[in-house]
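Response to reviewer comment R2.3. The reviewers asked that we include at least one raw input/output pair. We reproduce the pair for Biogenesis of lysosome-related organelles complex 1 subunit SNN1 here without editing.
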Amino acid sequence: MQSNPEDTEGSGIHAVELCVYSILSTDLDGIYQSINQLRESQALLVLLLRRCRNSLKCESELLYDKEDIAKSALKVRELEKRLNKVTKRLNEIKLRGERLVNRY
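Raw output as returned:
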């Protein structure tokens, strides 16, 4: 059996391949770690964006919900009518009281 000088311990891997692999593997590990950090950052950014979107959506619903504004305006008008009726009734009661005082 003849041994080939290009074989490293009979494994069939050339010494140059081992050198290239060892040089690149550290770089690949760094790249892999960077990719994982980017994925984590991306996930955090997505969560923050969702939180901001939900906050803005709630604010928009509160500020620009026309149905609530219409309901509130209707309720204000109804309360204004009731207040006018109560004021009118109060004035009538005052007049009656003044008449009673003037009588005696």
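The mean pLDDT is 85. Residues 13 and 82 are 96 Å apart (CA to CA). Further pairs are available on request from the corresponding author.
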